[in-house]
Amino acid sequence: MSEYTEEPFLLDNPFRSKFSEYDEEAFLLANFSNQPKGFFVEIGANNGWKGSNVHALALNGWSGLCVEADPNTYPYLVETYLARPDITCVNAAVTDTDGTVVLYCLKEWCSGLSSTNVGYKDSPNVEEKVVRSVTLDTLL
Q: What pLDDT, on the 0 to 100 scale, is given for residue 34?
């Protein structure tokens, strides 16, 4: 499912990042790959792998909780982890109150870009969606 292709100069680096945006994955693998299987929480999980800091841990058998607010992207997250009953996907925005919130999301699928910031609504190709919001306490 991943569109990632190996870069030749990265092939000899066992801690290279395939999914995370700023190489956070390399830190996690370097520090946690030799630990017993654990549990992760990823808020803003996108489609489960694009820009994910924890997808490599999931591939190594970790279980977890993936939260994605964008209703356009959420079905792709569910599809990514369909065969993993130990990974729970939640379609909600994590905020300071339970209820609903207006989310501004790009119309294209799996963009990974959405915001509750009203200034974001003036960006091209953005649509408003009312989505469920939960606090971190409620989520956990």
A: 78
Closest CA to 44 of 76, 13, 70, 26: 70
Best CA proximity match to 3, nearest among 45, 48, 68, 41: 48
Distance CA 90, CA 42 (A): 10
More confident call, 4 vs 95: 95
> DSSP of 45-69, one letter per residue?
-TTSSTB-SSHHHHHTT-EEEEE--
Instruction: Report the amino acid identity of residue 67.
Output: V
Single out the residue of 63, 73, 65 nearest to residue 94, CA to CA: 65
DSSP, collapsed to helix, strand or coil, labels residue 32 as helix
| Average pLDDT of every residue of the chain | 81
Higher pLDDT, 114 or 111: 114
